[in-house]
Amino acid sequence: MTMQPIDKPIRNQTASLLIALVFCVLSLSLFDPLLFWVLLIALCATGIRIVMFVGWYQPMPSPRTINLLGLLCCVVLGWFSLQIGLLLTMVNLLILAGALKLIMLNRPRDLFHLFCTCLFILGMGFTFHQSVIMTLFYGLLTLALLVAIGRYFVPSRPLTWHFKRLTVMSLQALPITLLLFVVLPKLPPLWKMPVSKNAETGLSDRVTPGDIANLTQSSELAFRATFDGALPPPPERYWRAIALEYFDGKQWSVSPLRKQARQQYRLLKNEFKPRVSGYWWQYEVIAEPTNKNWLFGIDVAIPADHTSAQSIWQSTDYTLLSETPITTRRAYRLRSYPQTSMDQTLLSLDNRLNLQLPVNQSINPQTQAWALQLAADYPTQIERVQAVMDYFADEGFRYTLTPAPMPDNPVDEFLFNYKEGFCSHYASAMSYVMRLLGIPARMVTGYHGGETLQPDVLSVYQYDAHAWVEVWLDERGWTRLDPSAVVAPARIQLGLQQAVEEEAFLANNQIARLQQLPLFAELRTLYSLLDYQWSRWILGYDAERQQNLLALLLGKVTTQRLMFLMLGICLLISLLLALYFIPHWQRKRLPANLRWFVQATSKAEQLTGLSRNNEGPQAFAERVADKLTPQSASQFRAISQAFIELNYVPKASQSEQNSAFIRQCKSFMKTARAA
Amino acid sequence: MVSRLKRSLHTIHDRWLQRRIPPSHRYQLNLKNVFIFPSRFGFGYLLTCVGLFILGTNYQNNLMLLLFQFLLAIFLLHLFVTYRNFTSVSLAVKDILPVYQQDHALLSIQLHVNNESQPFNGGLHMQLRGSKLAVLNRRADQDKEVKLLLPARQRGTFKLPRVTLSSTYPLGFFRCWTHLDFNKTLTIYPKPIPSALKLDASDANQGDAAGNVPGIDEFDTLRSFKPGDPMNRVAWKQAAKGGELSTKTFNQTQQEGGWLSLETYAGEPLEKALGLLSYQINRLSSRQHVFGLLLGNKRIEPATGEAHKHRCLKYLADYRQTINDYAAD
Fold this sequence. Notes:
The complex is a heterodimer of chains A (675) and B (329). Chain A has 675 residues and is of the alpha+beta class. Chain A folds into 3 domains: 14-183, no CATH class; 201-537, no CATH class; 592-671, no CATH class. Chain A is built from 25 helices and 19 strands. In chain A, the strands form 5 sheets. In chain A, strands 9-12-6-2-17-16 form a 6-stranded antiparallel sheet. The model of chain A is unreliable at 1-7 (pLDDT under 50). Chain B has 2 domains: 21-189, no CATH class; 251-325, no CATH class. A 5-stranded antiparallel sheet of chain B has the order 2-11-10-6-7. In chain B, strands 1-3-5-8 form a 4-stranded antiparallel sheet. Chain B has a 4-stranded mixed sheet with strand order 4-12-9-18. In chain B, a hairpin with a 6-residue loop joins strand 10 (163-167) and strand 11 (174-180). The longest helix of chain B has 25 residues, at 62-86. Chain B is elongated, with a radius of gyration of 29 Å. At the A-B interface, helix 4, helix 5, helix 6 and helix 21 of A face helix 2, helix 3 and strand 7 of B.
């Protein structure tokens, strides 16, 4: 009996190899979130599959071995999960499960399980990669997965055939996907999901002068802002992120008291709502993932719409905090009122925090002495501030990204010895001196500047990171002071790149050096534009945008109109399907000469009242001859003769004859007359 | 109770099928006779999609949602692809040749593609409705044929039950199937049981008890070969020695009409007796012997040849049997 078993082992099939390779590439694309040993197991599993496919080694490991291995892996992963957090554990677990399934791949059911696992891993991959290129790459992987399954079901066709077929099908699926994407309601999260404890990027909540220099070596994007209308002038582009209010003599950090206060406010749901006044800029920020909570805005910023307001907490230090860490690109809309005075917060708390001095009073003795001197010389706040700024301006300070290290008494060394440094040195020294002089002062970090991507779009990169000083002046409230601007006005007017041109800007970054080439720069701009539109329309398409779009489409969003829209979309999808599957336009067209011959014949039939049925062309021509005028009859005979020659006598110059034949037919159609 | 309910449901379904897909020798698959539903794998796929949707919603990640919607669109498209592929063929069945008991009959379904521009792809799964007998030809699109061996357990003439054909092309998300009644029967002859020939010398009405038939295998003379002589009668030994082709002739005394009769084996159980007769019919036919068959009150006049043999064997198969549905197990 030659009956094939229905569940045939599939270890030798191309499908198994293809899915193994896809799994391998997928695991490699998750290099960062994966534990090294998990990745190693995934690679080994792929290796085993390849060896089995080639046939060097056939026997399957026994299920018991694999189960034991699985158990062991789970225990180890459980141990690591404490360090890496729930999300990463989930990803690692998925990859592990996939790898073990891959080793055991034998029955079709295993193949289907692996296929679904791979799809799920692919989805998880979007937590970590969201760029256009990675999306395309994952799209290709999806296609390859489909091909693997297709190959299993139709083994008689080569892989290229499957690729072609499924590419066409994917292209057909895209319009439907986009329709669904646009209209399917964007739901809020159903429940809270674990977030990754990824390496934090960008600004840090602790600054030891010198840190921001590391950031200035990075050409990564920090965020983009799209303005409704004109951009603010360059000197106004101070993007506040963090207010650092605690100084220990060397390092600035977010004050623990401030954190406590914030927590209490949150418990009481007593959000700080600054009273704003004056003109404003409205804009949307698309922030790159930082795995931190802070957001960026120009002072004084408040959320511009309801969705943003829900996800943003305004703190009493005028910073904006996201409800959840920014693990993926996040869009939010703000409105900034630069003329608003920042004197609306609790003075007692602000004073207490911002007059704090290092506990260890032996650090920076020279500075302390200098401050005593200044305090004696200048009685008013304004004079004292001015004196310090003048000191920076007049004493030969230099703006550089590569200052000498200043480990002990950093402020003393900076102010009186080296007199060189960059923004965080200046901000740190100035804030400290201000505090010594009895003026509440803090260091604010964020970004300054930005590159114009489009007339209304700013791209802000990590190298735009900046630190400045805020002091409390009794008559004006919190006032921004930027000592860097005094030392290197170009830094504020033109950006860091120009300010430190003589130094090797982004010296350690080979790619950044490439960016200096004109062609590369152009490509980079092009990619930035594409990436910007991608972030804006695909990644940033949220409930708010959907509402706006629906309002644009429907005029007013009512339940009835929404229903009509949904019906319309269903209809549209059905139409698309009809277009794809109703075969009429796929029918092969008849060759031109045959079409014309049929037309000429039907003309003759019409004129004579005789029907040809299945008669041969020549016989029919003879039969109708005496019912046509002699001229038409001879014409029709010629046509019949030519048609026979065209179709049944092999000739070299077919095309010429063909067109001559068609001309003949046309003239017959015009001139034919019945006798 | 459950099994009774099952059976009655089955009969209701059968009756409905009888109306919906009436018996025919040839079927063009179309909306009327094709069913389609997501397969187990299809449901698994949908479950994965739902998982991606939840993931995408909870992380507010549009790319995950986009993947979810893309996979959904692919699923939807495959509903039509599967259907279109399955309905691109018409199906016919070859006549099922009669076989002996304990042998296997061959059921062969032929695929015919209606339109060359829309070829049939992928495998075809075939199952006898109501039995576990099934086969999957994963290269049905190349073979243009699906074959299933039917074990012949019982003698008789059987009606071929409905054949369930299904396809999961191209990605197995959907299963498209049909239950076709090709209106064919399958004849199973009794299994031949070797025995000595027992041929009545004359008509049973006149004859006495049967005796051994002498000389049927007894070699008589050699005569020169004439075109049309059966090959098994050629004296190959002589021919190999370089002589003329000559034909062996046998004692032809029985040519006038021997009779095989069930009565001869009255002492044997019926099935064994039929088996013995089956063997003898074969034997006599291969010798081109003229014989008749007496089977109870049925009577087949003496004749010779293949058609006669099959007629006799069919009588044996149907003896005291009614036409039943074929049951594989």
